Fold these 3 entries.
Entry 1:
Amino acid sequence: MANLQVRVNDELKSQADMLFASLGFDTSTAVRIFLTAAVENNGLPFEVRHTMPENMRQAVYDSRNRVNLNGPYDSAQEAVAAMLED
């Protein structure tokens, strides 16, 4: 049988230990359940979504679609000055 070591901060470990204990098992069992479900699903056993603030989403959209852009700039100093303008 293999050993698996994972580094997490103390607070996360404590919270996870309490959660899993309330469900009737220890953290090692929870990790085995997760790994088994991941293998059975051929991926993570839950949906992973990346959320970003609306202004960031708009900036990504603008850059991908080349709208609302500034520049080009002749120097890095000129670009930085434009970023600092309000």
Note: The two ends are 60 Å apart (CA to CA).
Entry 2:
Amino acid sequence: MHHLNEGDQAPAFEALDQQGKTHKLSDYAGHKLVLYFYPKDNTPGCTNQACSLRDGMGDLKKAGIKVLGVSINHAASHQKFIDKFELPFDLLVDEDHALQDLYGVWGLKKFMGREYDGTHRTTFCINENGQIAAIIRKPKVKAHAEEVLAAFNGES
């Protein structure tokens, strides 16, 4: 696992969203970007996190922040998740967890005594210059939009 830190250049990426559109880090140059990694569509924590970002989208847009979610789910799953919860942002497909490896969020997890590889819920707040302004390693899923705004305002 890579260990990225605040102040590092965000690793360049290229990935497809739920509709097969390519997204690259360079597409967001000059903008603030929230790149949030989550384990799975339609699970309670992931739904709360996505809905917090949805509900805070007005404030995020006012602050000039764009949002991309990333998980190992396939495009059709992402589209259903977006439709079901009216999510106003794209979700990137990372079935081979290459993007998660790049950002150092794929690795060993423990749950109820079982060990397995999976996504460590992590959010990267990337500034207009492509640098990591903040890393939220254990997001508060029900208040994630507020956490993101605070992180970009240097309050993390």
Note: The longest helix spans residues 44-55.
Entry 3:
Amino acid sequence: MTPINPIQTPGAAIPTPQISGIGQKNAPTGKSDFAGKLGEYIDQVDETQKASAGTVENLLSGKTQDILPTVAAVAKADMSFKLLIGVRNKVIEAYKQTMNMQI
């Protein structure tokens, strides 16, 4: 069983975001674009799906007897897939609203 993380002392500094000029037209450097982030998240969801399938396969083949890690992996894969579907639906909805805008 892992111990609970201790509470930090009250004097710990909380980083504050730096506010840059309003209306800047250039994107901040070092940041990736939306498509890149979305691609990374899709790859992560794919990896969790593969890991989940692997744990189910190990359980069914008898390599492992403990069902709890398998249930946890399947639940994690299910939650990440549902989140991905929710993001996809929001992107499609935003695209449709943008296409229906009158110029």
Note: The chain has a mean pLDDT of 80.
